[in-house]
Amino acid sequence: MDDTIAVRHLSLAEILEGLDLVRQSPRGAGTLELAVRRPSSGEREVLARADLSLKEGLVGDSWSLRPSSRTPDNTPHPDMQLNVINSRFVELIAGPDRDAWALAGDQLYVDLDLSFDALPAGSRLAIGEQAVIEVTEQPHTGCAKFAARYGREAHKFVWTDEAKALRLRGLNARVIVAGTIEPGDAVRLIGRSSR
Known about the structure:
The chain is of the alpha+beta class. Helix content is 23%, strand content 28%.
């Protein structure tokens, strides 16, 4: 799948109208709705199963090849292995087509409250039978591609105080325990690290 899918751009009023459903995302226990691999820039592969690795993040994703301006030597940032986004928000701005969701550029799409209150940095989430990820302090920010794909109003909205508190643009995480995951798996808060 490439990024040429057309998505209707919502007005700010339409986004605000749909926020109640997003605010009702389950807290502490939810569901993995979509897993997406980004093999190279602009490419997306919606996966029926995905492997999470301590070293690679989502296996086959290009994270491990992407330089980061947030590390001293421009190597991939270890606390930005995975981008996780709220599936209700993506469905609001992209519609029900999951290929359109994948254009957001995140790897994991979850029906779960991702707000700072619900998941402060250090929160650990079990996904499926084995995998565990940890929310990191690194902020997940939107980019010009997000605006082009979902519209200027959606891009502006994710920068509002409310949207930032809810982490509607998503969060960064790293793999703590490797494992295989698939859409439909439970995602549950299992504690917080002490680091």
